[in-house]
Design brief:
With 223 residues, the chain is of the alpha/beta class. The protein contains six helices and nine strands.
């Protein structure tokens, strides 16, 4: 399968004027309002982003209940959460994702190096998990599987720098959606694109001023 036939990936994120993903307060309402506009079939998320989100909101992890071991019955039009977790770092945390009312269910992508104890943990809780890769997740193989098995055609990812840059470096991203915040982080900036290995030519598809100070930009990546 060629890259042109893989699911469409939209990279969406909230950044500062100087391109930082962190060290400022993002407008989460606007962020998720824009994300919902795309009506994706799935959200692709790295395990570090899940852990960071839980820590950011400082919520106590609720204990697992019996219903956490079953797939939830949700609207079929809701997106899946596809989570990359090669090292099993979300053991004991995944139920917080499955409980999210706007998530159809969780699909976990792992590799052959993923600890067997974590795979048993997933199996016991009826999570769909797929081994796609040897030491780490093979993103192309994962996307092929998502399309074939789950009919996922549009994927939105608003994850951190590592996964974003991997997707960009493998020419898997079709569009970049940026919610620009009116702030400069400066020397504490955690630049979203600092690990992109080559120049990417972009075509502006959309520009919109929101609430008189936030700017939403959408670019198509020129192949």
């Amino acid at each position: 399968m060629s890259k042109d036939t893989l699911p469409k990936i939209i990279l969406h994120n909230s950044i500062s004027i100087d391109g930082s993903l962190t060290n400022f307060e993002p407008h989460m309402g606007l962020h998720y309002q824009i994300a919902a506009n795309y009506k994706p079939d799935a959200h692709l998320i790295g395990s570090n982003t899940i852990k960071t989100g839980i820590e950011l909101f400082g919520e106590e992890i609720p204990p697992e209940e019996n219903f956490d071991f079953k797939k939830q019955e949700r609207n079929i039009n809701l997106p899946y959460w596809v989570i990359i977790d090669t090292h099993g770092s979300l053991k004991g945390l995944l139920h917080t994702c499955r409980r999210f009312e706007f998530c159809k269910d969780v699909i976990v992508l792992v590799s052959e190096s993923t600890p067997k104890i974590y795979l048993n943990h997933l199996k016991k809780r009826n999570y769909d998990y797929h081994i796609v890769g040897i030491n780490k997740v093979n993103l192309i193989q994962a996307l092929e599987l998502l399309l074939k098995k789950y009919k996922i055609k549009t994927v939105l990812t608003d994850t951190g720098k590592i996964l974003s840059n991997l997707l960009l470096n493998q020419d898997l991203v079709c569009e970049i959606s940026l919610l620009i915040h009116p702030i400069i982080v400066g020397k504490e900036s955690y630049n979203m694109f600092c690990d992109v290995i080559k120049n990417l030519n972009l075509k502006l598809l959309k520009k919109e001023v929101l609430y008189e100070q936030y700017v939403w930009l959408v670019y198509k990546i020129q192949k």
